[in-house]
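Hello again, I could really use a second opinion on something today. I've been staring at a protein lately and its backbone has me curious. You're getting the sequence in one-letter code plus the fold written as C-alpha cells. I'd be grateful if you could look everything over and explain what you see. No rush at all, and the record is pasted right below:
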Amino acid sequence: MTLLIHCISVLQVTLLLFNAVANEAMPVFLEKLVPPYLAVLLSVSLVLVFGEIIPSALFTGKNQILLAAKLSSFVYFLLYALYPITFPISKVLDYIFG
C-alpha cells in the first residue's frame, strides 16, 4: 500500500497510459471483425459504457474502498510492468509542473 501512496505521480502516469492504450487498441482489433465505421462506433460506445459509466457507478458506491483494495494487486502489476516507461515520464512531468 505504501508504494501506491508514495509514488503518486508514477501511479497516475501508469493508470493514464494503460487507459489510453486500452482505449486506442479497441478500434484496431474491432476493425478486423467489422467495417471501420462500425468499429469506431462500437469502440466509442463500449468505452463510454464500460470505461466511464459503469466504473463511475461502482467506485462511487458504498463498497468503493473494498473494490479498490481488491484491484490493488492488478495496479501493482501495472506499476511494475510499465515502470520503465512511466517513471521517466513522471519525472519529466514532476520537473515541469512541480
Observations:
- The mean pLDDT is 89.
- The first helix runs from residue 2 to 6.
